[in-house]
Amino acid sequence: MIHARINNLKFSAISVASPTKKVAVESFYDIFGKEDVDSFTEMTGVESFYRADYNQTAGDLGFIAANDAITKTNIDLNDIGILVFVTQKPDHRLPSTAFLLQKRLGLSTDCLCFDLNLACSGFIFGLHSIMSILKSSNSKAALLVTGDTSHRTLSPSDRTMIMLFGDSGTATLIEKDESSSPSYFAFRTDGKRFKSIITPSGAFRNIGAPKERIPWGDGIVRSDYDTHMKGMDVFGFSITDVPKLMKELMSELGSSPDTYDYFALHQANKFILQRISAKLKIPWEKIPLALDRFGNNSSNSIPLALADRFGSEKDKKIRTFMSGFGAGLSWGCCDITLGTEAIHPIIFSDEYYRDG
Amino acid sequence: MFNAYNNFNMDVIERYKKVFIETFKVSEKDLINGFASQNIDKWDSVAHLKLISELENEFDIMLDTDDLLELNSFEIGKKILIKYEIQI
């Protein structure tokens, strides 16, 4: 594994934005049948999720969260020298959505901005990237923004995915602080399994693939422009490779599940979380659960679970072990200490950028 | 004793079949010829998780990861359960 330690950076704010439209999984009874939908809920734990309207993008949700983080900390905009936006659904192919966020937030031209194309591992990878850059720069603060509207590349007939994913955006403000506890990270990636979660067409490979949806080998009707997940491959990876890395980082740090107040894990599905909990002997009550109401939110999952659990709880210092895992395949974990006063309640908004 | 043993085994196989029948909404006769993930459309990842969960609850076991992933047919499932001392 590749691992890292980053000192003297504090988490000043974690903000999360969700669309207002709540979709109950039961609303799919007419499409997939009550029994199949109820089985899906039983296995995944997802009862509802939130979905962005046609005009609202991942960038919009990220902006709402970022604006909240900036407002709540009252930080000087000129202090933010780095902005990274993690997404699989940019506003445009060109330029990176980070530049639009820079404009909308009023950040200076002395701010380093770019996008990271990552999915469910994106928060951990993004955190490490932004904290590393901040440490090596003269900037006082950095803003990690994540956003996704996963449903936009899902086949409406894909019963394994269309009821699983919710839309949201998050922002994490990091500042230099000599008194902060160190943060620790570990990562692995495996490009050999790149086809395990893939949207085969729509970029610049497989140009001209037919847009018509047809039945695939698994019986699901989709096109190459729809995201395809090899369910059992991803499930196997989630319950073997991911806990293995978590265990390795804990071993490296000389820590154990007892060391941590909470385990903020990517909200993939409940069965996976239960399996990881059992495998690593993590008490179930230490794992905040938001996927029942919000679904799987890609790179937003971890901050969303924190905001859902601690958004109204202040003045508590928590040592949290986090793990994000997904497309690539890629997986990462980290050991972070933060104060719950930095974690803000989820904002619900359908605001979108009219000049985009 | 011979009859009691056979009855017990019959009970186990009936319980095993019942899990498959209820998970995939099929009849018993459908389980005879090569009932496997590669030729059953409904055997997707969600159905697989449900099958595993129901088998674990029915027989009070927790499958190892490798077994959980390899349990992809009615016949293979029987061989796997034998490893957990389920006398099928």
Structure description:
The complex is a heterodimer of chains A (356) and B (88). Chain A has 356 residues and is of the alpha/beta class. Chain A has one domain: Thiolase/Chalcone synthase (Peroxisomal Thiolase, Chain A, domain 1, 3-Layer(aba) Sandwich). Helix content of chain A is 29%, strand content 26%. Chain A is built from 9 helices and 17 strands. Chain A has a 6-stranded mixed β-sheet with strand order 6-5-7-8-2-17, with helices on both faces. In chain A, helix 6 runs parallel beside helix 7. Chain A is globular. Chain B is an all-alpha fold. Chain B has one domain: Orthogonal Bundle (Non-ribosomal Peptide Synthetase Peptidyl Carrier Protein, Chain A), CATH 1.10.1200. Chain B contains 4 helices and no strands. The mean pLDDT of chain B is 87. The interface between A and B is medium-sized, with 23 and 16 residues.
In short:
The complex is a heterodimer of chains A (356) and B (88). With 356 residues, chain A is an alpha/beta fold. Chain A has helices at 29-32, 34-44, 58-73, 97-105, 122-135, 231-253, 270-280, 291-294, 301-310; strands at residues 2-6, 9-18, 22-24, 48-50, 80-86, 112-116, 141-148, 168-176, 183-189, 197-198, 214-215, 221-222, 228-229, 262-265, 317-326, 330-339, 347-348.
What labels describe this entry?
A: 356 residues; 5-stranded mixed sheet; 29% helix; globular; B: 88 residues; mainly alpha; Non-ribosomal Peptide Synthetase Peptidyl Carrier Protein, Chain A; 61% helix
